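Structure (tokenized):
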């Protein structure tokens, strides 16, 4: 019976000139998300609305699942689409629709009609009153409540007539592609996929970089990161994953620098390399999953020392999140089960027993001098010889 979905979006952020850009991006992302769903879908915008109409048989729950992952949507309303065949016919259709949607249920309701097409012979106030009365007479469990109805029966009279009463929450945020592009430092952990999801939710397109240390980290560890990128891409759209071989740099740091500073120096090289690739791929910011105090390399002092090697803004959406809150999002986006698979991470292999928690930038810079003979060519090699995987 449901032949269409009315798509609602928050309008506060999209006044004026930006509105068509926002709406077109939303239409594009909805089309993309429905491509993998069985059925034929027609997606278009009218004033203030985006519509999805279906033709023939289609996979309702597949379509709903896909739409729930599109950023920019605040609510999805499964709707009945009717040709105008007179008001009496409309009354019957609405009652049949409600009986099917709430079989045998007791509900309070209110009719809310809007007439975008003014030549419709019955005005909104009359529709509300007459339709309300007709529902009351024909559905035993339904009672009117104009103040706090459980069921709002929305009727929109346009070229066609749309009837809907359920509003399923959407993913919120802004449509992908309306917010520039950023480079996510994606590890196999819990945090960075969540960080990527959160930044993508603001409309930002993502590239991702993963630092791989073969043979110390396995192919399966790399596959796990690709799988996480795929999970994020269900929301964020296509992601280019750059896999950087970090082994020789890590070994070199291990040889030349104090071991308690290993992690922090490694983190600085990750940021430098990520920024290089970001520049090449027209990303304008870096994204990490860091959160204050989580580990030694994420104290405020460590973050400051890591940060000083970048000139691009570094977005750290989880900076003030507790682990439980991060895990909750990780589970919501279906990343958690993959994130906790036990594969080694390049950071943990050479990790010191007592890493510095209050590094001094001056001292770290001085110790990085020990690397000057070979580090530039190693970084160059890491950047140019990276593997690039398209994740969709
Ligand atoms: P995560 O759960 O995201 O792995 P974490 O709590 O393990 O984070 P760290 O290992 O200190 O924290 O890493 C901090 C951040 O640095 C990560 O969130 C990620 O953005 C980035 N990062 C760490 N290791 C890698 C890696 N091997 N490849 C790419 N980025 C990494
Ligand atoms: Mg990690």
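Design, position by position:
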């Amino acid at each position: 019976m449901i032949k269409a979905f009315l798509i609602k979006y928050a309008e506060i952020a999209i006044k004026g000139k930006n509105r068509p850009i926002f709406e077109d991006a939303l239409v594009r992302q909805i089309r993309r998300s429905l491509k993998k769903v069985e059925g034929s879908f027609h997606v278009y915008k009218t004033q203030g609305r985006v519509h999805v109409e279906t033709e023939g048989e289609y996979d309702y729950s597949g379509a709903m699942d896909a739409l729930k992952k599109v950023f920019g949507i605040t609510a999805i309303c499964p709707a009945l689409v009717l040709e105008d065949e007179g008001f009496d016919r409309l009354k019957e259709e609405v009652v049949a629709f409600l009986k099917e949607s709430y079989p045998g249920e007791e509900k309070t309701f209110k009719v809310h009609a809007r007439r975008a097409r003014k030549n419709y012979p019955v005005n909104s106030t009359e529709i509300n009153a007459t339709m309300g009365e007709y529902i009351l007479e024909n559905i035993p469990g339904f009672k009117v409540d104009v103040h706090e109805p459980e069921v709002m029966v929305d009727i929109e009279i346009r070229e066609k007539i749309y009837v809907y009463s359920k509003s399923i929450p959407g993913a919120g945020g802004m449509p992908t592609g309306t917010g520039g592009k950023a480079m996510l430092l994606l590890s196999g952990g819990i945090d960075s996929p969540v960080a990527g999801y959160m930044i993508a939710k603001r409309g930002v397109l993502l590239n991702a970089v993963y630092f791989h240390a073969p043979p110390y980290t396995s192919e399966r560890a790399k596959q796990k990161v690709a799988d996480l990128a795929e999970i994020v891409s269900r929301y964020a759209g296509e992601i280019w994953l750059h896999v950087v071989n970090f082994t020789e740099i890590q070994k070199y740091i291990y040889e030349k620098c104090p071991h308690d500073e290993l992690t922090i120096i490694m983190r600085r090289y990750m940021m430098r390399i990520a920024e290089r690739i970001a520049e090449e791929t027209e990303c304008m910011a870096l994204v990490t999953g860091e959160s204050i105090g989580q580990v030694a390399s994420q104290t405020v002092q460590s973050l400051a020392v890591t940060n000083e090697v970048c000139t691009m803004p570094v977005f750290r959406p989880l900076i003030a999140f507790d682990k439980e809150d991060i895990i909750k999002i990780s589970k919501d986006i279906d990343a958690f089960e993959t994130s906790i698979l036990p594969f080694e991470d390049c950071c943990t292999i050479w990790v010191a027993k007592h890493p510095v928690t209050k590094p001094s930038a001056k001292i770290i810079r001085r110790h990085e001098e020990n690397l000057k003979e070979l580090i530039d060519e190693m970084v160059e090699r890491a950047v140019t010889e990276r593997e690039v995987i398209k994740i969709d």
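Reviewer-requested clarification: Residues 187, 189, 345, 347 surround magnesium ion (ligand 2) (CB under 6 Å). The chain has a mean pLDDT of 94.
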